[in-house]
Amino acid sequence: MDSSSDFVVVANRLPVDRRVDRDGTVSWTPSPGGLVTALRPVLEEHSGAWIGWPGTTTAEDEEPVTTADLPHDNDVTLVPVALSPEDHEAFYEGFSNATLWPLYHDLIVHPEYRPDWWERYVTVNRRFADAAAAEAAEGATVWVQDYQLHLVPGMIRQMRPDVRIGFFLHIPFPAPELFRQLPWRRQVLESTLGADVIGFHTPDSASNFLLTLRALGHDVTVEPEIGDGATFIRGARLPEGSPAAGTVEVDGRTVTVGVFPISIDSAQVNAKANTPESIAAAMSLRQRLGSPKILIAGVDRMDYTKGILHRLEALEMLLDNGDLRADDVCLVQVATPSRERLESYKQTRKLAEQTVSRINGNHGSLGHTVVHYTHAGLPFDEVVALYSAADVMLVTALKDGMNLVAKEYVACHSDGSGALVLSEFTGAATQLTDAYLCNPHDRESVGEALLDAVRSPAVERRRRMSAMWEQVRTHDVHRWAREFLEALG
Ligand code: ADQ
Known about the structure:
- By secondary structure, the protein is an alpha/beta fold.
- It has helices at residues 34-45, 85-104, 115-135, 152-159, 176-179, 185-192, 203-215, 229-233, 266-273, 276-288, 308-320, 343-363, 380-389, 404-411, 443-455, 458-474, 477-488; strands at residues 5-13, 16-20, 26-30, 48-53, 76-80, 136-145, 164-168, 197-200, 219-222, 246-250, 253-259, 294-301, 329-336, 371-374, 392-395, 419-423, 436-438.
- The chain binds adenosine-5'-diphosphate-glucose.
- Residues 170-171, 262, 299-301, 334-336, 377-378, 383, 400-405, 408 line the site of adenosine-5'-diphosphate-glucose (ADQ).
- This is alpha,alpha-trehalose-phosphate synthase (ADP-forming).
């Protein structure tokens, strides 16, 4: 066995992007997401490895991508796991994103339960687990990320009882009565319990997980001092009486379940927003938009969970009833293309685009567009300029594990400017309690929060934003990684 890494991250995607030049030459560039930034120090310190799919499928007659093809980094070994087009369709688009994703986001659309997808999910999880077991050194720490890889902890445990295994779920864990719909619920839970530490963003998710285990007959011990949970849940507000932390006894092992709210590299985002280039870009953006009195922004993946339609309808209501004047406002909505082959995503995009068009048709005028919409991912510099320029940020997700957009916006307003309208159904709402909170399922509630954000006295807005920046500044992604890994020992 070629086991060489003391710290192994297993995630659906490798932190690389594939580029094809005009002459057809393929190259790979690092893609620095939050997770990579947070884990880099640990990966470097421990001669780490990152196992994941490189982002392009490999047909049967093609050579799979190898470590040698990928960006070379002395401190981190990138280990690619190949997916065929069929794997991608059944494991990724199917079981991960058309079964688990909608089930875990409270059935905003109906999950599909298909045995062929499940079988492929098992096969592909096995491939990731095999790669991790081969890469991990004796006694290594292996950290498995997210819902695409639920079965990996148990599979690694069977092959390598010597390693410490962590599992972190980046999306919400649903209520027991929803999770119990899943035909393969026992297999998913039992294999997840192969981990030593299982982490969630919110007390709600951890509580749902513990209650589900209990409902299915597991021996669950809940932290006795719930009132004392504040130290355990690290900044997240704990609903009275919920078992947000606990332990589960499995085959003589103790599995710890806890709350670890993810965050951003707060200092880095804040520094970026305060560079002269970024300040100039924000000013120029406002001017290009016609220097509106109120600039509102939305930045999301085009996903039905994000409530893009709901925020558009709330804005439309305020324009229709005269609470906001079209000449005064401008909304910039940037939506990254996502999972575009799935019907529910096509439908989400269509409804959002129809609504943008209707608002502009009814309320725009020659020379003034009310909603500027683009279906594209922007470079992060441009996202930061948009955050800085925006007077109000609209985050109206119907359900969201955390929502990093809300935290990024706050990090761009450390001077106390701006206002955040935030859905109660995001993990971020458990921490950013000074936002203008709203219920995105209730158009009136979103409208009220938006009007509050616009109309409250400047001193009140500043108080709220400063309190939120203090929260984001002191709870960054480094702290998230450190606390999870400390719990894992
Ligand atoms: P996502 O659902 O992808 O993540 P989120 O946490 O908001 O959601 O992160 C999105 C990231 O993509 C942000 O860093 C944002 O800047 C960027 N982004 C979004 N739209 C963009 C655009 N149009 N152009 C450029 N960049 C854009 C999942 C869970 C979340 C959880 C994270 C991390 O669904 O709930 O917060 O993982 O755990």
